[in-house]
Specification:
Elements (H helix, E strand, L loop, with lengths): L5 E4 L5 H10 L1 E3 L9 H7 L5 E4 L7 H5 L7 E4 L9 H7 L2 E3 L6 H16 L2 H9 L20 E5 L3 H11 L4 E5 L6 H4 L3 E2 L3 H7 L2 E4 L13 H6 L4 E5 L8 H10 L2 E6 L18 E3 L8 H19 L10
Parallel strand pairs: 1-2, 1-3, 3-4, 4-5, 6-7, 6-9, 7-8, 9-10, 10-11, 11-12
Helix pairs in contact: 1-12, 5-7
The structure holds 2-keto-D-gluconic acid.
């Protein structure tokens, strides 16, 4: 029997995924889920054919240049790719795969959870009960922003943006979007396209950020762009923290320019800008977008499908490079 390919799995994955990886490969696992430095990861990768990594590990050009010669593939347990220098990976001859599609619905669900929770002041309401501070119902208690029938602006109408739009239709929201290119009518499904992001912002009573992190989207939601939003708008970010200028967003939440925000992702996570903790009108989650067992299993199985294809000399289904 030929030796199994050796795969370094950088983080603890769901049980079913670990089982499959351990059966299919000579897997170097991290069942204690230690947070290794990239130097430690490079040392562990010695002799491995591939690395099954997560967005918590940064494969910069420098790290890629130091990868052991044996490593020929990176299968990332994520749809996002900003933690891998793809040009450097290509130049090094690495195959890189990701996990599209399978986390679309769970991430769109969290987008709506944040949108509703932010608009309807879920954090303040929950806190009243947890602190035993609720003295009773009143007609004017914790009045929030009405969601149904409002205009939702979606920045980035890829798979997740379109899944957010599908949910928004159930709330009778009018869907507006900006995307690098306009979608064909069958994908647009009546959503209104704006050629520039600024035009989108002007109409967005709710704004959902669903564009990937890139040099173009870095700091996208800054003070000037927030000023374009209608007064009392609600902003939701389940994409990446780098899309938002934290101080500008906090200033707008404090001044009342924005009614509320819902955030699942943060620049520099797991550290978050401390200003968010002091704001009652921001609903925050620790990057839970894809955090369901079904989704995380599916992400892991996709990594294995891609690795199996690479080791069998077939084209991996989710090749990025
Ligand atoms: C993942 C994500 O949980 O897949 C992505 O891009 O943002 C998350 O939902 C995480 O990045 C896993 O590595």
């Amino acid at each position: 029997m030929p030796a199994k390919p050796a795969v370094l799995v950088t983080r603890k994955l769901p049980e079913a995924v670990t089982k499959r990886a351990a059966e299919s490969y000579e897997a170097c696992l991290n069942e204690a889920d230690k947070s290794f430095t990239m130097d430690q990861i490079l040392a562990q990768a010695e002799g491995c054919d591939a690395i099954l990594c997560c967005s918590s590990e940064k494969f910069t050009a420098e790290v890629i240049s130091r990868l052991p010669k044996s490593v020929r593939a990176l299968a990332t347990f994520s749809v996002g790719l900003e933690h891998i220098d793809l040009d450097a990976a290509k130049a090094r001859g690495l195959t890189v795969t990701n996990t599209p599609d399978v986390l679309t619905d769970s991430t769109a669900d969290i987008t709506f959870l944040l949108l509703l929770a932010a608009a309807r002041r879920a954090y303040e309401g929950e806190r009243l009960l947890r602190q035993d501070a609720w003295t009773g119902w009143t007609p004017t208690q914790l009045l929030g922003v009405h969601v149904s029938g409002k205009r939702l602006g979606i920045l980035g109408m890829g798979r997740i943006g379109r899944a957010v739009a599908r949910r928004a239709r159930g709330f009778d929201m009018a869907i507006h979007y900006h995307n690098r290119s306009r979608l064909p009518a069958e994908l647009e499904k009546g959503a209104i396209y704006h050629e520039t992001p600024d035009d989108l912002l002007k109409v967005s009573q709710f704004l959902a950020l669903n564009a990937p992190a890139s040099p173009e989207t870095m700091g996208f939601l800054n003070a000037a762009r927030i000023a374009l939003l209608p007064d009392g708008a609600v902003v939701v970010n389940t994409a990446r923290g780098t899309l938002v200028d934290d101080e500008a967003l906090q200033a707008a939440l404090s001044s009342g320019k924005l009614a509320a925000a819902g955030l699942d992702v943060f620049d520099g996570e797991p550290k978050i800008h401390p200003g968010y903790r002091a704001l009652d009108n921001v609903f925050i989650l620790p990057h839970l977008g894809s955090a369901t067992l079904e989704t995380r299993n599916a992400m892991g199985f996709k990594c294995c499908d891609n690795l199996d294809a690479i080791f069998a000399g077939r084209e991996p289904p989710d090749r990025v490079v």
